[in-house]
Model the fold of this input.
Amino acid sequence: MTWRSPLALVRDALRGQRAREKDLRNLASNLPYEGLDKAKQPNRYFLGNGIKTTKYTLLLFIPMNLFEQFHRLANIYFVGLAILNFVPVVNAFQPEVALIPICVIMCLAALKDGWEDFRRYQSDNKINNTLCFIYSRKEKQFMERRWKDVRVGDFVKVVYNEIVPADLLLLHTSDPNGVCHIDTSNLDGETNLKQRRAMSGLCVSDPEFEPESFNSVVVCEKPNNNLNHFKCYVEKPDKEKVGAGIQSLLLRGCTVKNTDHAVGFVVYAGHETKSMLNNNGPRYKRSKLERKLNINVIFCVILLLTMCLVGSVGHFLWLQKLPSVPPYLVPNSNGHLDSPSLSGFYMFFTMIILLQILIPISLYVSIELVKIGQIFFITNDIDLYNEETDSRVQCKTLNITEDLGQIEYIFSDKTGTLTENKMVFRRCSIMGTEYPHKENAIRLAVLEPESGEEVIFNQRPRPPHTGWSLHAEDTNSEDTGYDHDNQRKSKVTGNAQSNVAFSSPLETEVIPDRKLLQQISRPDRSDSGSRKTDPYLDFFLGLAICNTVVVSTATAQRQRESVFSSSGQTNNPLDSLSNLVKKSASTRHIFTSWKYKPKRSRTVSEDSVVEEDHFNTPVKIEGSGVTDGLQTCSLQASSQCDDPAATSDNLSYEAESPDEAALVYAAKAYGFILLARTPDSVTVRLPSGEDLVFEVLDTLTFDFNRKRMSILVRHPITKECVLYTKGADYAIMELLSTPYAEHLSGKQKNIAADTQHHLDCYAKEGLRTLCFTKKIVTDKVYESWTVNRQRALAAMDNREELVMDTAVQLETDLSLLGATGIEDRLQESVPETVVALREAGIQVWVLTGDKPETAVNIGYACRLLEEEDLVINMSCKNKLACTSILDCTLEEVRRYSEDPRNVDTRQDIALVIDGHTLTMALSSDLQDRFVDLAKRCRTVLCCRVTPLQKSRVVKVVREKLKVMTLAVGDGANDVNMIQAADIGIGISGQEGMQAVMASDFAISRFKHLKKLLLVHGHWCYTRLANMIIYFFYKNVAYVNLLFWYQFFCGFSANTMIDYWLMIFFNLFFTSVPPIMFGIMDKDVSAEMLLGVPELYRTGQGAGEYTFFTFWVSILDAFYQSLVCFFIPYLVYQDSDIDVFTFGTPLNTISLFTILLHLSIEIKAWTVVHWVVMLASVALYFIVTLAYSAMCVTCNPPSNPYWILQSQMADPMFYLLCTITTVVALLPRYTFHVLRNSIAPSPLVQARRLDRLDVSTRDEWMKEWRSFRGIGQVKRSRLSNPPSPTLGTPADIHPQSPTASDIMGDDLTLNVISENFQRPVHK
Amino acid sequence: MGKGKGKSGPLARRPDNSAFKQQRLPAWSPMLTANTVLPFFYFMALICMLLGVWLLLTVQSTQEVKMDYTEAGTCDKCFEKRKNASNAAQTCSCTVGFNIKKALKGDVFFYYGLQNFHQNLRRYMDSRDDAQMVGKKRNLKNPSSYCKPFNMDQKGLPIAPCGAVANSIFNDSFTLHYLGSGGPVQVPLLRKGITWYTDKNVKYRNPTTENMTLVQVFNGTARPLYWQKPVYELDLLDSTNNGFINDDLIVWMREAAFPNFKKLYGVLYRANKPFTNGLPAGNYSIDISYNFPVQYFQGRKEVVLTTLTWFGGQNHFLPVAYLVTSCLILLIAVVLTVAWYKFGKNRKSMDE
Done:
């Protein structure tokens, strides 16, 4: 190292600072400068790749940790008092001893911090010393170096399965197409492979990549933490700029997959990498209880100051009253006596020190411990464990467990939260013709009951033979036409059995619609002339191409355990045959049952079948069910034989969104197999067996504003540029041009209208809809557009907008091909969960991006809406209309709820509102009215809302109604909402981990919410609330003993208890029981809480922790301390008792009182409780006895020597302890008994039921629920087997707006259509 | 998760299905309702009642004689004398007579009592050096700072025993005479053995040095300010009662908890007649060496003669407290019985 002047160093540092702060960074290759000293390096200002996540260094640990700890107000208070104790005129205790509690607490905290930091240090070290390959100019090859040696501007090579050490701009890969796949599961948990492509044309030495020839400058933005966004361009020596985005960036922490090796240029290193910037520790939220607690702490402060004032004034008056100087008045060390007023003034501070425990400092530590314990139990709950994903519930925010017990509003996402987000292709409409895919529906119905029912099926007699034979003829006659396809189909089923991440057979298998198969395999379509323009072909091509699905081969795919694996991987033909029989039998079973209960069957709804009859030739319903059985049979049978098309076997698709995968699988079922995808080309195999390779010109990726994506390809045969676009119907319909099929037969003139009709029907069935369009782009248009596009891509400023603009430019004049309906099945037990939450007094809102029809349908399916509910639809175009609707609805609802006739008919109101209206309703002037209306509704469905609106709704409700809110969601679009709510819950599902990372708790199923809230929430809340109240009581009761004594010792701040014993009393004897109480107490059993969700209401609103309960316990504490002090006082009055001998029974009595008080509060005594309680008492006696036996002069000037021993030899001690404890606890005990006997709270009643045996209890629970007005109707329906009826279109019609309602009129309001006609299922 | 590493396989993170972790530990959950606690209430009432009656009967058998001598008899002149601090060095004796109507049977304890004397003030209490009193040489010559300003006299000599507590020792002395038929008889009082055993033998020790008398040991220390004689002259007759282990000093050093207190002065020696059964009824007189001033704090001085029970001195409060509590519990129990009868019955029928 050469010497440099300090000035230069400072200048350099400043320059470095500036370079790091700049919005754009210019990075050059390090290679030309290799070996030069640091000052000459071009990238010296940027951080290296070594990371340091430790908070402390070895030397500075103590000061830094102290600094950290003094951020806590409580610690400052404590230390302040300790310091005050060192001031001679005001000290109350021996100053050194007074330091002990704070030292103990802070040492414990410091130990914990130190240990955690050491762990971080170790992991940092491990990471920093991981090996990687850096290019070295001297060696002319990649050399093995450690991660911490990587610097910005280096060239790093990452090989297969290795972790990327820094953020790399991908320059070269082993793949000829310049593609590299990465697995980002370390970063965001998304398990699908992502494609990254190398920037091409930067190195002159292509195809051999030579880092030394890299002579461009990389200009990139300032580091940020957005994982999905990166802006950068590379300026070549000839000033040409090439833009690059996230698709060329390998993020630190990702794993390289499917690629032999990749070379990248380091743009960000170390702490500036995106993954490190995203790496925040656990978040801290402040719970509602804690906020209330702080208010009570302030009350305690006021109480403390009052008491100190009393002491101070008392001391002053007492001094005043003295006739002269008595011998017991000790002058200060100078030999002077302070004046009474000065002494009184000093006494105020002394009193603060004396009574300091009144402010429950240890409460904060205890609460933290309790929460750790509570979280331990929550995460260990086996009911919240999901075997499929092997995941427990995760608590990300450690200190809001008790908020779970106070939730009043739940805001739920729909997709992936209420539903599985496992998309299953259900129906499609092509060129205005509906293809209902009934067989597929039946297959799903069969697959659905996975366990339990199989047993029943086995017992059922085999289906009658006639049905089989009849059918065989039937199918055979039809099958001849598309033999080839059938074989392929069989492959689909076969393939489904390989378990690929994120796809179960349920999703991958699609049984094609017979009619559609016929349609596409019509002989007249096989001639190549019409093939190019056939809309059916285009539709399926769109399905297969227009996506970002990555095809991975079997060798690269990652296996995932799944429920289906056991049955799926058997190769025994006998097994599969027996499975078949079961399946077909169950099909029949479902079918027959369906005949009797038409609306029971979830997946096959009668109305939908009826409806399709409008569009189609009627299909024999009875036949189709059995057909499926047979078809499956034939398929399975053929799958046993060899299949020529072995290549397609090993394909598995990895998609970013499950919809895409579902569509690709659907296309595959029809023979349009996506074979391969590179950034530049897509290969599709056609049913005829020929492979088409489309050149991909551009991909216009999906975004939430456009709600669509497009892919621009060059058709290999016609050489035309074709744009396939798919998207939400409303995002597509307005972009349509003249019908695509103009030149086709005239009967399809009105495809758009027909398709729209189908779409509406799909939506009513609760299907997710997507429209597919095609557009042929002329070469000329493409040329000009592509120039714009390039410019937009290379732009640094507001690139997104520009890129989006270019996308919008191209996506015009689309011609509609058709639409698909994808089913997103409800997660298991969602309706039960929703009903339970509703009974628990929680309002559940659904915020979804879907159409109102879909949302309403899901609402009925998951029982957010009931048949007898009033459903208010709000949808309006302008604000004026919105205002009047709100007013009028509000008026109506008010009148309705105030109508005395409606008191006992529990009619519930539901509100359905769309995003546009919501925006207006949430504007500042309408907000109050909207909230007022929403308050009166049992449920609100917000449809077509943006992520931002979601969080806005949550915020408005939370602030206006002052309620506890919980938001639950699974996707990136829920992150805002999750962060806005009091509690954010992420569902770790199919859509990556963004929601989970932003959440406070992460669960894997929606149904887990039930136990999480109703059981753990309730428990955590009651436990903590009771613990805190108890803690306040304990401190006040104990400190007041000292206070009462002041009246007898001239307010001189004297204590009758040895200070050590006082410290021990708080630190050891009485600290563990409340903590155990806070962790383990169980007022009502989990079964009871789940069985009677109404019990949850006790925690809502003010809950158990109110000012009333607080003050009652404070008053009780006053009473108890009075008893504990004055009974011994009266007993020992005028005797020869000495100070500490008087204090010892007092201490003992308060120990017993405080512990027995807790015993009254403890609801369930387990072994742990007994051990802790008895151990506390034993500890008290052992420690006190030992202390008073050993300490002769160890703690001057107080002297507890042999006092407890002599007291325990005195029968008076026991008589006194007994009577005092009894009298002190009598009121509370009596109060509990009286309340429980005369007016038992629901919780007490539940506890009483808990003691009954199981069967009686269940009976009682039912009785209770019906008695409590949950409604006989609902109860009777609950007793039926769960039947989440997908509301059928006919049923919703009266409430749901028709298409014209939403689109056409300016003002639409279906004012409270009471739907009594809706039949109640028996 | 350290636990997770141990397991592997598909269900590696599955929580243990143990009763503890699933919060299913068998638990006893008492229901605090009338019917469950009524027996307990009645039982408690009975126990308290019995204890109360027993204690009351025991207390009835004790006797106590109290006599305020602050200004009684001939002590009024001494009282006046002590008002003036300048007369502190002068001695003053007086006699007070009193009558015991009923004989005090058994062991009779002689206490002196003080009223309004706050031995429990924090400063006062702290103003002592236990290390000095336990015989530590270092502390003898260098008393603890807690003793300030009573640690050194004006000449700078360390005070032994130091501190305000020792300084303000009660220094009246009493001689009790029984004025029986055979002329006045001095009532024999045991002036030793009035301290806690541990105090006498562990907490208080004279500094020991071989072959040195107590005087030599305490050489170089000063007597407390208010004392008339140094600590090594407290009991010249008995070396086991001299210096720091003087019983009166030890008793005084045990600071009383309340401003009105009594301290043991002596126990009746019952070897000789007429005191073998205690103090007989009749007239008594006490000769008092009146030294302790009380007018600075409006205090009173008294002499208490009392017999003790197995649970302490004459104490009417404890039995009364037991009896009252017993009645209270009984009352509550009755109320609960009514409540149970009215409400509990309903529930019974509901259960059925």
In short: Confidence is low (pLDDT under 50) at residues 448-503, 525-532, 554-646, 1269-1322 of chain A. The first helix of chain A runs from residue 6 to 21.
